[in-house]
Specification:
Number of domains: 2
Order of helices and strands: EHHEEEEHEHEHHHEEEEEEHEEHEHHHH
CATH architecture of the largest domain: 3-Layer(aba) Sandwich
CATH class of the largest domain: Alpha Beta
Strand order of the largest sheet: 5-2-1-6-7-8
Radius of gyration: 20 Å
Largest sheet: 6 strands, parallel
Number of strands: 16
Number of helices: 13
Strand content: 15-25%
Structural class: alpha/beta
Shape: globular
Distance between the termini: 44 Å
């Protein structure tokens, strides 16, 4: 059954806001109700001539969440919650789900996945281990409610927007959408790249604006598969380098990191959590944990035409 009354948890955040905007873009066409759950109150989110109210909830309190969901008769929850604290993150997602399950109207849940499949990388990427408990709960609920409940994991690979870091276009800041601005693997502004492995593994890249469009379109599917894999492009990192060099008209300084190089780097890291995340991702990448292991199915099920890597680089560096 298609989603009609949708709550986006964490929808005021970076990725979350793009998903809210994707939903608002199709709100009138499909007669949707869209609300945003947030830890603090805020103004409505406006996009494409439509609004979504931002409603404060206490993620530590199931009743607080349930009351809001009940007021709007929510049938679908999309979680984009983030936290560096495992206990907070795990509890918030579990409480979101339990609040939804208390309502007769509720039948769909999407946990805060995105990027790469958390189960593939959790053995090596610490921040992804906190994403696993909700998956086990969702599997159990699906067994208990096989005909009345669906969940899906949305995966989109690397956000292509990071390729725009440092561009000097007049409105260059718009290239990042609502994401934080920093380079990841590639720094086109310095004509450099730090590549895990030999750069020959196929990798998914998706612009964050297109992630919002894909997720919004998926809410209008009659059924959800367990995995909804999307892609703006599928390229090796070496192919991205060649495109970047072609568009920028300059040779890049590229450093390749072997597994041994990465482990040596990790042994010298500070206590900075994000620094560890960066190099843990590199280790997972060279170990094959980030390999594409399922078909890119969502692209075939919805009518979204994402921006490819070359088109994106040409837009901001051409």
């Amino acid at each position: 059954m298609k989603s009609q009354r949708i709550a986006v948890a964490g929808g005021t955040g970076k990725l979350g806001r793009h998903i809210v905007e994707g939903l608002l873009e199709i709100k009138q066409q499909h007669g949707l109700t869209v609300i945003v759950l947030s830890r603090s109150p805020g103004p409505d989110i406006s996009f494409a001539g439509c609004n979504a109210p931002v409603i404060a909830v206490n993620y530590e309190n199931v009743d607080s969440i349930r009351n809001v969901l009940n007021d709007y008769q929510i049938d679908t929850i999309i979680s984009t919650l983030v936290s560096l604290t495992p206990e907070t993150f795990i509890t918030s997602q579990e409480n979101l789900l339990q609040a939804g399950l208390a309502l007769p109207s509720f039948h769909r849940f999407a946990p805060s996945e995105f990027a790469v499949d958390s189960e593939q990388v959790s053995a090596r990427v610490n921040l992804y281990r906190m994403k696993i408990p909700i998956l086990r709960t969702l599997e159990r609920v699906k067994r208990e409610r096989p005909d009345s409940f669906e969940y899906t994991r949305f995966n989109c690979g690397i956000f292509a927007n990071y390729l725009a870091f440092g561009n000097t276009k007049p409105e260059g800041h718009k290239a990042h959408g609502h994401l934080a601005r920093f380079p990841f693997v590639f720094d086109l502004s310095k004509r450099t790249a730090e590549i895990p492995g030999d750069g020959e593994k196929q990798t998914v890249y998706t612009r964050v604006e297109d992630v919002g469009k894909f997720v919004a379109a998926a809410t209008q599917l009659e059924t959800w598969e367990e995995y909804n894999e999307m892609a703006g492009d599928v390229l090796t990192m070496n192919e991205v380098i060649r495109i970047s060099e072609d568009v920028c008209g300059a040779k890049f300084n590229v450093k390749y990191y072997s597994r041994e190089d990465i482990l040596a780097k990790m042994s010298q890291l500070s206590e900075n959590v994000m620094e560890h995340f960066y190099w843990e991702f590199y280790l997972a990448y060279v170990n094959g944990d980030c390999d594409i292991k399922r078909p890119i199915n969502l692209n075939k099920m919805v009518d979204i035409k994402p921006v490819g890597v070359r088109q994106f680089i040409e837009q901001w560096w051409g």
